[in-house]
Input
Amino acid sequence: MLKGGLIGCGFFAQNQLHAWQDLDGVEIVAICDRDAGRLEAAGERFGIGRRYTDAAKMLANEALDFVDIATTAPTHRPLVELAAAHGRAVICQKPFAIELGDAEAMVAACAKAAVPLMVHENFRWQTPIQAVRRVIDEGAIGRPFFGRFAFRSGFDVFSGQPYLVEGERFIIEDLGIHILDIARFVMGEASSIACRIQRVNPRIRGEDVATMLLGHGQATSVVDCSYATRLPVEPFPQTLVEVDGDQGSLRLVEGYRLTVHGPGGTRELDVSPALLPWAERPWHNIQESVQAIQRHWVECLTSGTEPQTSGRDNLQTLRLVDAAYRSAATGQVQELAG
Ligand code: NAD
Ligand code: 89Y
Output
């Protein structure tokens, strides 16, 4: 049985705690939050008695196999470095860091301590996204030459996550980061990016619309994100996908419907996520992917393999985020090192 300690018992950690409870071979034995009320509420809700308001004390007192960090970005570096100093494996929420230098320092600290590090980059683990990748891996549409990854919504994410109103940066850093990771997962590593941003909602500080054009070697993709889009059917939190290959095409449309067209004909697939017993629509797509990435972590720790979205891997997603903001500021295409 792997023993974990979770730091940060806020809005999103509730999903992580539910998912840990459902998984075999792992248990969250201690929790930490510097807000005593939140700590108490999570402890009672999930029946976890060992509670700390100080992460350093939790690390010193508990015999943990890993630490799951579910705080917001400003505290990631000190907490990851604390876990590494105690020789504990670490999961850290996205955005892993705001500055690339901090991300590189965390990767280096975990490498030096020889502890596994995974970024909780869960969107690629969504059932519909896994289905898209499977169709491509099966060769059903041939070699992809174009992709579009669209997340366009008018859903109120600000009431649950009020800090999103205040940041100088918003949609790329918070949400686009997931969609850029999906683009990498489906199309392969990106070699260039151009980006334009807009702010439509006057009540927030950062950008709520971002339109990005990526080069992936010979292939091209468009990643377009908006929290200012009012649609007759609200698709939150679905990423809609189009991929054209040299033998066919796929379309993942609203309602989790995937159409695959290839030399053998056309198939319609229902790729809906499961509604887990503790999940709530429309979040169930994200909630199921939390369970999937945490299962992947248990498998990786048990087998000694590197997680798909290890700290090292996530540096490449963060480089895209950084380059997207630089492109938006300068109007120039940004080239990324291989
Ligand atoms: P939140 O503010 O609701 O919760 C964070 C909690 O961490 C708070 O209770 C706070 O008191 C606690 N905390 C902060 N620093 C601490 C420290 N040093 N020691 C102990 N406790 C500390 O935030 P949230 O909305 O739950 O977001 C947390 C992270 O999850 C963010 O980075 C966000 O981007 C990410 N998130 C990810 C997804 C996803 O699908 N992967 C979805 C939503 C949010
Ligand atoms: O914080 C974001 C995330 O990671 O997924 C959706 C979200 O909760 C709001 O954009």
